[in-house]
Amino acid sequence: DTGVSQDPRHKITKRGQNVTFRCDPISEHNRLYWYRQTLGQGPEFLTYFQNEAQLEKSRLLSDRFSAERPKGSFSTLEIQRTEQGDSAMYLCASSLGGGPSQETQYFGPGTRLLVL
Amino acid sequence: RKEVEQDPGPFNVPEGATVAFNCTYSNSASQSFFWYRQDCRKEPKLLMSVYSSGNEDGRFTAQLNRASQYISLLIRDSKLSDSATYLCVVDSGTYKYIFGTGTRLKVLA
Questions:
Q1: C-alpha distance across the termini of chain B, in Å
Q2: B95, A55: Cβ pair inside 8 Å?
Q3: Do A42 and B43 touch (CB under 8 A)?
Q4: Taking the alpha carbons of A106, A108, A109, A114 in that order, is the dihedral positive or negative?
């Protein structure tokens, strides 16, 4: 399977714990995006990378959230001191990023987080 | 005003019907537009890009109206399998993309 993969698919944690999610984009895709989606809403932009550089981060992303893409391949999203309001589906997407015709984003299956 | 707005629906239509969705956007600098389809508890999948000249893919037609800042999606001859949420996506003027809340479509037998 050469699509975007995410791990884990599901995570249940207690409030106050730290969690880390991983995303493996499609090989050779330069851009990688993280989104959060709650029930009845569209995906909400969190951050994106061009290769290893984090180019934009949502104002909605508190200091408890951090993302990395150290070698320009896979990425991790960490949430520290989780809160119940962090419960959501976390989606990763990647795109070639070589110009207007290469902006299509391909999504992974998501990581569903439940904070108790 | 939200950056991207869609009517959440639901739109309940009989099989074979034609249905149209609109999506308005606020940033006049936006250049890239897409429609994605999302099935329940699944990830979004690209349905089609939206080009200035409009484009068609089988039963699906997408249009862009820059003057009024909206895009549309027309589905002809609806099938039961078209039941899903349709997400409008617009770039923010950079490579950050804004999704609408989605429009739910249910095609009834």
A1: 37
A2: yes
A3: no
A4: negative
For residue A92, list chain B residues with Cβ-Cβ distance below 8 A: none
Query: Are A30 and A97 in contact, with CB atoms under 8 Å apart?
Result: yes
Tokens of B83: 């039941």
Q: How far apart are CA B55 and CA A23, in angstroms?
A: 32
| C-alpha span between B102 and A97 (Å, rounded) | 24
pLDDT tens digits, A30-75: 999 999 999 999 999 999 999 999 998 988 778 899 999 998 899 9
B30, two tokens: 């936006």
Q: Which residues does B100 contact at the CB level (< 8 Å), separation at least 6?
A: A42, B4, B5, B6, B23, B87, B88, B89
